[in-house]
Design goal:
Distance between the termini: 15 Å
Structural class: alpha/beta
Oligomer: single chain
Strand order of the largest sheet: 6-3-1-7-8-12-11
Shape: globular
Order of helices and strands: EEHEEEEEHHEHEHEEEH
CATH architecture: 3-Layer(aba) Sandwich
Radius of gyration: 14 Å
Helix content: 25-40%
CATH topology: Rossmann fold
Number of strands: 12
CATH superfamily: Class I glutamine amidotransferase (GATase) domain
Strand content: 25-35%
Length: 185
Amino acid sequence: MSHLGGRTIAFLVAPEGVEQIELTEPWRAVEQAGGTPRLISTKIGRIQAFDHLDKADTFQVDATVDAVSAADFAGLVLPGGVANPDFLRMDGRAVALVKEFFDAGKPVAAICHAPWTLVEADVVRGRTLTSWPSLRTDIRNAGGTWVDEEVRVCMAGPNTLVTSRKPDDLKAFCLEAVTSIADAS
């Protein structure tokens, strides 16, 4: 993997519902590449991760969405889980932060159900991405092109967008996410 040279990467999650492996594997990849991951949420305290529908571990939040901006980070990772992006897309501050990364031209990586938040931020129009298959129609209705691929790197916009479908795609997702952030910085 590319070396991140101490760059700080935001991981945006809701207070509950994130798929744990989609948080911990990219987090580990960022650390192994020399980056500094920071957990951002809509509330301070601890977030509750899930293993599908079962509660898993909790993780300490580093900062809330209203205390940070895209300028503080080299890139953004949006882990999935069904409930996580659904909660995030209902929070105007979280949606605004996601859009800010696109407006700033910074890399964004989203896996599984996480593109729901991208749809809400109105940043998929003209982009090609993948996701959990149930988001296909939402992405198309928002002006994006949905593909069924392990990982898709789309550079047809103001930033690099990396997307993957599911936890089985994490190896490819982590590699492309880290590479895209390293190359952009």
